[in-house]
Design a protein that fits this description.
364 residues, Lipocalin, ten-stranded antiparallel beta barrel, 9% helix, disordered C terminus
């Protein structure tokens, strides 16, 4: 919470003091077009768009430097179909802070774990993790990739799992539970001439007028879960179910989405999109007696994607959120429980654009 407050105050400072900061850092000339006649009139500290349209100004020719805080997560759940209860496992979350840059098509961020923020291992257990999540935004498409490996989980909703659970009881920790996830998806942006994901999530462009777009693409996802003993904890309401020690799944499907960028008071923006897919998945459960059951199930895949913030030619700040949720559907005749998986990231950022690298373009 301390870090979130620090970044929130930083964003407010940037928004409220833009005029003062602009005066300190040099004039901003947004009306300069990049052509052979006007380039000679650009001042060296000017910020100018690479391309300029009625809806979008592309600033990918400028170097963007930013500070950010980011939290990635991955969790899974098991739904008891008969009793309509869900067992939720989550790794101990970790908030990282760092810095990065955007230039042309390349964007890199470097973040670090801060001990004074992530200091609850004694309560929720220690989680060892490898988490690579990448959201790639181009003018015409969006791609999502993630590779995750978590060891060490705790039960997130003990009040729904243990009948005698009381507030204040110590969390139920499973240091032996491992999850491995690998996913890839891509979608084409049909109205890319008016709608820009880059403006909302990369800040290498500025959306000047509200616009939306339909998207269409495909996704593939594989997941593995394993524990040294049954995933259902002893003494819980789930103990009567068959003792699963491992679960694996492979999903494949086509998905569609709609996204819209709202422009508020000229420089404030809100971007909201929702992707949905009905996929097919092959799943397998391994029990304590080493028996394995395999089935094919329909999979519901939902992905909300949101961003809110402040975006001017030189300064920008805000936050973004991307989440993937998978639900394995089955009938009571096929299975007595279903699995759900959730993965995503939350990001707070504040940055500034510079023309340092682009000065050579003034001489063309």
């Amino acid at each position: 919470m301390k870090v979130l407050l620090i970044f929130s105050n930083l964003i407010v400072f940037v928004v409220l003091n833009t005029n003062v900061l602009n005066a300190m850092s040099g004039p901003i000339n947004n009306s300069i077009l990049i052509d052979s006649v006007m380039k000679s009139e650009c001042k060296k500290d000017s910020i100018w768009p690479k391309t300029k349209t009625e809806y979008i100004d592309d600033y990918s020719n400028m170097l963007g430097l930013f500070l950010y805080a980011k939290q990635k997560y991955s969790s899974f759940g098991i739904l008891d179909i008969e009793n309509d209860k869900e067992l939720l496992y989550s790794p101990n979350k970790q908030l990282n802070m760092g810095f990065g840059f955007n230039y042309k098509w390349l964007g890199i961020g470097i973040a670090f774990k801060l001990g004074f923020v992530n200091n609850d291992d004694n309560l929720y257990g220690e989680t060892k993790r490898l988490d690579w999540q990448t959201n790639i935004y181009t003018n015409k498409a969006v791609f999502d990739f993630y590779l995750q490996n978590y060891r060490g989980h705790y039960i997130k909703n003990p009040e729904e799992v243990f009948s005698g659970w009381k507030n204040g009881d110590a969390p139920y920790i499973r240091p032996d539970v491992i999850t491995v996830s690998l996913g890839l998806s891509g979608m084409y942006v049909f109205n890319h001439e008016k709608f820009s994901y880059k403006a909302a999530f990369m800040q290498t462009a500025v959306q000047k007028k509200g616009a939306g777009s339909f998207l269409l693409g495909a996704s593939v996802f594989t997941q593995g879960i394993a524990g040294d003993s049954a995933i259902f904890p002893k003494g819980s309401d789930f103990e009567s179910l068959p003792p699963i020690i491992a679960h694996s799944a492979f999903y494949l499907g086509v998905r569609a989405a709609y996204a819209y960028n709202f422009i508020i008071a000229k420089h404030y923006f809100a971007s909201i999109s929702l992707a949905a897919a009905l996929e097919i998945g092959k799943t397998a459960n391994k029990l304590e007696d080493k028996t394995v059951s395999v089935s094919w199930n329909p999979i519901i895949h939902l992905q909300p994607r949101m961003a809110f913030g402040y975006n001017k030619p030189k300064w920008y700040a805000g936050f973004s959120f991307v989440r993937d949720s998978y639900f394995e559907g089955s009938s009571k005749d096929d299975s007595i429980y279903d699995f759900t998986f959730r993965t995503g990231n939350f990001r707070i950022f504040a940055g500034m654009r510079f023309s340092w690298i682009s000065k050579k373009e003034l001489k063309d």
